[in-house]
Write the structure tokens for this entry.
Amino acid sequence: MKIEKDRVVRFHYTVSEVGQAPLESSKEGGEPLAILVGHGNIIPGLEKALDGHESGDSFGVDVPAAEAYGERRDNLTQRVAKKHFGAQKLAPGQQVVLNTNFGPRAVTVEKVGMSVVDVDLNHPMAGKDLHFEIEIVEVREASPEEVQHGHVHGEGGHHH
């Protein structure tokens, strides 16, 4: 079965910056990633690359920053009260997850003051051209409920 919109794909991935050592791999956790295709659940360039592949396929793909996490934007910094970081020890350059009104967001600490912290809101991989090594584990039809909700349920997916 080929990958297309409204199908569920389970796949292993390893991601690196183009020409660099791997940053992360699903194989370390052992579980493949499960996504519902055509619903914006992964970066656009990777979703496009999966299209038309089938179970058992392995391939590599380069995804330019614009189709990954977007270009870096300057001046995307925000001053946040230190209390929002709880008891975490903070240092410049450190990546932390900040709970925002729009859900959790990965930010990079720029400067730590007495009561406030300056953070860079760019995604840590913004502006980076990424390389993925993909191994397709399974392709199946999504259930009507999964399509309606826009994400995978059950193994490797959301639990309501």
